[in-house]
Amino acid sequence: MSKQIVYTEQAPAPIGPYSQAVKANNTLYVSGQVAIELAPLGDIRAETQKVMENIGAILKAADMDYANIVKASIFVKDMNNFSAINEVYGQFFSQNPPARETVEVARLPKDVNVEISVIAIF
């Protein structure tokens, strides 16, 4: 198995012992992305937009784009934000959106409101 670490300065540096993404064979595993650049937080649409832009930057660093995503995991602090997150998230997938789950959690890193991780293939 070949394994390559993917990193870009166009997305936040990891805040712990993990990589932005790892490419293994034909699959890219993108770590959960948050909008820590937007402190103070509060606008869920702006947070979701920034998270998706961070994911896009990491995909680009791996010579991929949103069309390569096959699975997304969304973690949200308040499920009442589901429709707003969906509205922004959906703009990045005009056709054939990936499989996905959305889970409400008690707390997220840096007290953000949304975190999204993805798996993409070549």
UniProtKB/TrEMBL annotation:
A single GO molecular function term of this UniProt record: deaminase activity
InterPro entries in alphabetical order: RidA, RutC-like_sf, YjgF/YER057c/UK114
One GO location term (cellular component): cytosol
CDD domains: YjgF_YER057c_UK114_family (cd00448)
Record Pfam families: Ribonuc_L-PSP (PF01042)
Tree of life domain: Bacteria
Similarity remark: Belongs to the RutC family.
Protein name (Swiss-Prot/TrEMBL): Reactive intermediate/imine deaminase
Source species of the chain: Spirosoma montaniterrae
